[in-house]
Write a structure and sequence with these properties.
The structure holds 2 protein chains of 2 kinds. In chain A, strand 3 (about 65-70) and strand 4 form a beta hairpin. Chain A folds into 2 domains: about 5-105, Beta-grasp domain (Ubiquitin-like (UB roll)), CATH 3.10.20.30; about 110-245, Fumarate Reductase Iron-sulfur Protein, Chain B, domain 2. Chain A starts with a strand and ends in a 6-residue tail after the last helix. Chain A has helices at about 35-45, 110-115, 140-145, 155-160, 160-165, 170-180, 190-200, 210-215, 220-245, and strands at about 5-10, 20-30, 65-70, 70-75, 90, 100, 105. Chain A contains 9 helices and 7 strands. Chain A is about 35% helix and about 15% strand. In chain A, helix 2 packs parallel to helix 6 (about 170-180), helix 6 (about 170-180) runs antiparallel to helix 7 and helix 6 crosses helix 9 (about 220-245). Chain B is mainly alpha-helical. Chain B has one domain (about 5-110): Fumarate reductase/succinate dehydrogenase, transmembrane subunit (3 helical TM bundles of succinate and fumarate reductases). Chain B is elongated and about 55 Å long. The relative contact order of chain B is 0.13. The chains are: A alpha+beta, B mainly alpha. The interface of A and B includes residues 196, 200, 240 and 250 of A. Bound molecules: iron/sulfur cluster (SF4) and FE2/S2 (inorganic) cluster.
Chain lengths: ~250, ~110
């Protein structure tokens, strides 16, 4: 292992630069140094003007997503040793999001999409606390647990060509979140969420490219969730046709 | 948000894919190897009897129409994904339209047989 690695970071300073330009930093290489720690080193030792996001350093907060050699990945979960052989790596802000500065992107639209699908429990009637907790069997937990592991890192949006083309697409994480609640035995809000799944901007924009599931750092498998959403939406479509045939209103 | 009509196209696409996966190889083997190398007169009678039966007609319509819709659905989305500069509506019309025309043609032919 050579003792340093060249990290090229796409810098973008609004008001100063017209477009992002790469800047090279040489960082001392060690086997256990993550890309995030390398960025911290750059910021502390080489260039205090560099901007990037991070918090937990342990793949939990979901804030350190960047494009690492063109792939959306978490900085804290990716180690420099992987690139030691080539002696260099390239970082840029997550694709498909507006860049605010350097590696920091604007997540406002993404957060809006998450909120759109109403990711909270609905109950027909609130149960008095005295009646105790909502109980769930292990099998009921199993149904949605994988889909509840999302850390909202946005990597799947940077991976999704459909979101890149049109960001009105609710996207992998938001649609997975909707399914996560729809599959929860304690929830009674499916009807509230189905209109968003049923829309073109919902599950139907997806063409099952599958890259979202490849890049997901938590093995949530959003592509599977979206495609299960397609089945749910198709059933909902059929039921709605029956409703229409019965003279009822479009739901 | 407006309800999408994509479930119709997607169901046909899914049904076609499923059908091909299940009986596609058998279909190719039968029509490509078994029938052409069988005894011609007997084969002709067998196929004719198959087409004459309502279930035979239904089977043939399914194996013609569903894979057609499957194919044009893939084509439609594939063209879009390749950023082919054609209006979305036109591509959809050409794809699903041609599948529908061919389906109606096959259905009519099967009916008059
Ligand atoms: S589904 Fe995976 S990639 Fe997408 S936001 Fe959640 S954790 Fe990140
Ligand atoms: S710093 Fe929290 S996920 Fe990487």
């Amino acid at each position: 292992m050579s003792d340093s690695i060249a990290i090229y970071v796409a810098r973008y300073r609004p008001g100063e630069d017209d477009a992002p330009t790469e800047q090279r930093y040489d960082v001392p290489l060690s086997a256990d140094l993550s890309v995030l720690e390398a960025l911290n080193y750059i910021k502390d030792e080489l260039d205090p003007t560099l901007s990037y996001r991070w918090s937990c350093r342990m793949a939990i907060c979901g804030s350190c997503g960047v494009m690492i050699d063109g792939e959306p990945r978490l900085g804290c979960k990716t180690f420099l040793r992987e690139f030691a052989g080539r002696g260099e790596l390239h970082l840029r802000a997550l694709d498909h999001f507006p860049v605010e500065r350097d590696l920091v992107v604007d997540l406002e639209g993404f957060m809006g999409h998450l909120e759109t699908v109403k990711p909270w429990m609905f109950h027909e009637a609130e149960r008095p606390v005295a009646e105790g907790e909502y109980r769930q069997t292990p099998a009921e937990l199993e149904r949605y647990q994988q889909f509840s592991q999302c850390i909202n890192c946005g990597l799947c949006y940077a991976a999704c060509p459909q979101f890149g083309r049109d960001d009105s697409f609710l996207g992998p994480a938001a649609l997975t979140l909707a399914l996560r609640y729809n599959l929860d035995s304690r929830d009674e809000g499916s009807a509230e969420r189905m209109p968003f799944l049923n829309a073109d901007e919902g599950v139907w924009r997806c063409t099952f490219v599958g890259y979202c599931s490849e890049v997901c750092p938590k093995d949530v498998d959003p592509a599977a969730a979206v495609n299960r959403g397609k089945v749910a939406s198709t059933i909902n479509y059929g039921l709605n046709l029956l409703r229409l045939a019965g003279g009822k209103r479009d739901a | 948000m407006k309800r999408s009509n994509e479930p119709i196209a997607w169901s046909l696409f899914g049904a076609g894919g499923m059908l091909l996966a299940l009986i596609g190889p058998g279909l190719v083997f039968t029509t490509g190897f078994l029938l052409p190398f069988g005894e011609p007169v007997a084969t002709w009678h067998a196929v004719d009897a198959f087409i004459a039966h309502p279930l035979g007609k239904l089977f043939l319509l399914a194996v013609i129409a569903l894979p057609l819709y499957h194919t044009v659905h893939r084509l439609h989305h594939g063209l879009q994904e390749l950023h082919v500069p054609l209006p979305h509506g036109l591509v959809a019309l050409l794809c699903y339209g041609s599948a529908t025309v061919l389906t109606i043609a096959s259905a009519s032919w099967l009916l008059v047989r």
